[in-house]
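pasting for ref
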Amino acid sequence: MAFESPTRRGAKPSFRARPRPAFQTDVHPANRMGGSAVQKQAQWLSRAAEADRAGDAVQAELCRQYAEHWFRVSRGQE
């Protein structure tokens, strides 16, 4: 039996946006933190230290990258 696409059977293809999968991370930028760039850098470094203590090296590195971003923002480099 040959594969039949939905369009061959007369159904119209759906171009509606599909819902995105819900990824649960504690460091997603949607978790907004207030304060200046220097304060945000300190907060991300704190989160990195917590992740290191928890043994999550990937999350710790991600937090350090966010901290570096805010360091550059505070210095006017980005």
